[in-house]
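Forwarding the complex inputs:
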Amino acid sequence: MARTTIATAAILMASLAIPITQHATVLASDDVAHAATKTGSATDDREATDLSAREILDRVDDMFRGTSSVGEAEMTIATEHWTRTLSLAFWTHGKEKSLFRILSPKKEKGTATLKVDADLWNYLPKVNRVIKLPSSMMSASWMGSHFSNDDLVKESRMAEDYDFEISFNGLRDEVELIEITCIPKENAAVVWGKVEVTVQRKTYLPISVVYYDEDLTLVRTMTYSDVRELGGRMLPATITIVPREKPQESTRVSYATMDFDIAHGDDLFSLRSLQE
Amino acid sequence: MSAVFAYAWRNLARNRRRTAIAMSAVALSTAMIVLAVALIDGMIGGAVGNATNLVVGEVQIHAVDYVEERSFYDALDDPAHVLAGARERGVAASARSYGYGLVAREVKSAGALFWGVVPSDEIAAFDLAHHVADGSGRFLDSKPERKLVLGRKLARTLGAEVGSEIVVVVQAADGSLGNELFSVAGVLKAVGDSVDRSAAIMHADDFRELFVSDGRVHEVAFNTRGAIDLAELERFASTLAPDADVRSWRTILPMLSDMLSLADGAMWVLGAVFFTAAGLGVMNTMLMATYERMREFGVLKALGATPWRIVRDVATEALLLSVAGTVVGLIVGLLGAHILQIYGIDTSTFAGETSFAGVAFDPIWRATPNYYAAARAAAVMCAVAVITSLYPAILAARLRPIEAMRRV
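Prediction (whole assembly, two chains):
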C-alpha cells in the first residue's frame, strides 16, 4: 500500500545531472520572460525571488539529488510490536542506480539492496545468496520500514506527473509557508490520489509531504526536519514517515553524512559488488 | 388374474423385436437416471470431503481479528489447551502458524505464505500430507530439517523440484530480517488457488526459529471426518477457546457452502429434466408400440372383447415390460455407479485442474450409488411407462371395430 513517487526521489535517491541552483535559475528566468511577453509589462506582482509552484516541486524533487551521492544514515523504525534502528550506507548514481548496505545491527550487517532501473536485488550475507525481488513484492515493506520497495524504485517527478497549484501561501503556526496541492495527471503511473507538499517560504525546503489515496483518504505523512549542512547543501537531515492507519508507528531516517557528485567505480552498482 | 399376466406375457413374446425396443428404452432411461443421480451425489459429497479433509477441517479456531487482518501478532492465547482438549475427546486437530515472506531459487523469486505445522498432527488429522504429487517427493518428516513443501504453482514459478535449494526471507516477529536456506521436500497436488500459489509449508520448529515466533499459533483446525455433528463440534471448540473466533467450514468457505446448497436444489431440477426426457422416450416407444396394434385391437373388439379388457391387456403388457425394463436398468445403472465409484471419470483430460471457491476438486469424478434414490427413480419410470400406454389403449378401446381394423 505504501508507495510513493517523490518519496523515493526526496529521500533515498539522487537524480538529474543538473545542479539544482542552475536548474532553478533557468526555469525562473524562463518564467519571468514568459510572464513579461504575456502581460506586456514588467509590473509583475511577484517578487523577483519568488519561485513558481513548478520550481518549488522541482527543488523538492532534486533536493537530495546530484549526478551521484554517497552517505550514511540511520533508520529508526517504530511499530506497535517492536522498535529498532538500522544504520546504513548508501551510494547513488543518477536516479537509476543505488546501493544500500546495512552496517548494524549485527543480525543484518552486510545485508544490501541494489537498485538498477526498475529492478531490486537483495544480498543476504547469512545464507550468502542474492535474490531478485519479484514484482509482486514491490508494495511490501523495505527492511521492515514504512517504506515500500516501490519507494526505492519509482523515478517519477512531481512537476511532470501531477497537475498542481499553490493552495496556501502565508503564515501557519507562525511559519511562513507555501502549500502546493498536486493531483495526478490522468495517465501518470502514480498510486496517489493527491499529494500536498508544504515548503518553507524562505528556503523552499520541504516541511511535509502528505499522501492521499484515490479516495482522497490520508495515507501517510512525511515530515522534514533538522535542517543542516549536508555535502555542501542546506538540507533537512531527518525525514519521518507516519502511516495514517497506525499513527503510533513511524520510520525516521536521519542522514549522518552525505556527499554529492562523487565519482563511483564502474562496477559499484553490480551484483558482484552487492555481495562484498 | 394370472391368466391376464400369462396372456400379456404371450403377447409380449409374440413380437419380440417390438418388445425388445420398448424394454431397452425403459431400461436405458432408468440406468441413465440412476447413474446421473449417483454422479451428482458423488460430486457434492466429494466436494465436501475435498474441502474439509484436505486442509480446511470442519472447524477452525483463530484469534479474534486474525481472519480479517492476518496479522502475525494476532495469535491464539493458549493453543496447547485447545489441542489437549481435542486430544482428550478424540478430535483430530492440527495447529498452524502463518507468516508472509519471500522464497527465491536462483534468479526466480515469489511471495509466499509460510505455514509452520507439526507434521505428525497434520498427517493424523488431514489428507494434505498424502496430497504430495506422485514423483514429487513427500511430506515433511517429524524432525525439523529445514525442508519445505510447496504449493504446485509456487513450485512452478520458482522452477523448483524435490531437493531444490530455496532461499527464504521473512520479517521476523521482532522486526529483524529472518533468512535461511531450505530445500524442497515435496510439491503438492492442486489444493486450491491460494494454497497452490503461495503455500510454503515447514516444520513448526523451523518456523519458530525463522520468524522468532515465540511459538505463536494462528490457527487450530479440527477434523473428525463427519464423526461429530458440525454444530456440536463448533460448540465444543467454543468451550475450549471461549475468547477465540470459531468458524465452521460453511463459514470459512461460504461460496462452496452456497454452491452445495445450490447444487442440492439444482439436483431436483436436473432430476426433473432427466425424468422428463427419459419419460418422453418411454412414452414415445409405448405409443408407437400400441398404435402399431390398432388393427389387432379392432379384431379383438369385433370378436367381442370389451373396451375394459383391451385397456387391461395393454396396461398389463406395459407393466410387465416396464418392470422388466426398469429392473434391467436398475442393475445396469447401479453397476455403472459402483464401477464409477471405484474407478471414477478422469476429468483432468478435458477439464484441466478444476477448483471452485478456492477448493480443488479431485479430477477423478466418482459416483456415490444411492439405492433409495435409484429405487424411487425406477418406480417413477415404471409408472410413466404404464400411464403413457393407457392413452393409445383407451383410444383403441373406444374405436368402432371396423374403423380400427381399417387403420394402417
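Chain A touches chain B through 26 residues (CB under 8 Å).
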